[in-house]
Amino acid sequence: MQNLVEDFLQFLRHERGQSDNTARTYAALLGKFVTWAQTQSLGDWKQVELWHLMAFLKHERERNLETEPKDSARRLSGESVYLEIAALRAFYKFAGNEKILPQNVAENLSLPRRWKRLPKALTDEEIKKVLAPENPETPESLRDGAILELAYASGLRLSELKNLRLEQLYLEAGFINVIGKGNKERVVPVGKKAVEALKRYIDAARPKLVTPKSPGTVFLTRRGTPFASVTLWLRMKNRVRRAGISRNITPHMLRHSFATHLLEHGADLRIIQELLGHANISTTEIYTHVAGNRLREIHRKFHPRST
User: Fold this and answer.
1) Dihedral sign, CA of 104, 109, 115, 121?
2) pLDDT tens-digit series, residues 73-113
3) What residues are labeled active site?
4) Contact 18, 104 (CB under 8 A)
5) Is residue 119 within 8 Å of residue 286, measured between CB atoms?
6) Buried (b) or exposed (e) across 1-14, using 16+ Cβ within 10 A?
7) Which of 40, 153, 203, 302 is the most buried (most CB within 10 A)?
């Protein structure tokens, strides 16, 4: 069963152009089903019927979470169940199109309605704290400052920051060429403050981090290697904590802040969609709810006849 999953993952990478992150997510989700199937004496995908898929999803909804104590009442979220169903449906669609399996037993699995969680953004005051320079100035502090400035100035995903290469920078012209999800390219402007932070890092700090084996990625660890996603985020999170912000910050929060603040200051939604690299405008539209809530709060606070 695992061999067929590997064929599907190769299809995602090489024919659909999906990112490594997407492929890893599908691998983990389908791997859970394969592991469960083995406990049910299922050794071939052709043996799997719709009721097996339903039993697996029921098992997933009811099982204890690995990260929680055994007596915890917490269970798998609806979002996680949604992703598992989506992975099974995508896998069976591939197997059907390739004539590998005789029928698509997952086509009648209905996807639950997804609740759209409003993205959380930092306030203007919090952004000022996060982007304030640190003392003493070190190669690491200049690097981390440049990462945060660029994340907020251009709304990049964590994977885009980590994989950004020197040849993608056009700082004199004030833009960068970003390779996003599905290897799609987009041109994103970079503000003056971010350009200055990047130039300082590249001129004064990056040469001290480079080793003979260092790649051409912009941001390097103190060992001269590219960042892993988790390591990069920990650096950013620690910097945010040192800035005096106690609330939990997620990897996407600077990206959300970028989009929300642009919208609040009058940017067109289609332009924000293009800058973020969203394939569909519906993904970008969620920021209209965030901006609307903020505007209502401001109106209630400052309008003389709102109370």
Assistant:
1) negative
2) 555 666 778 888 889 999 999 998 888 998 898 988 877 66
3) 157, 181, 252, 255, 278, 287
4) no
5) yes
6) beebbeebbebbee
7) 153
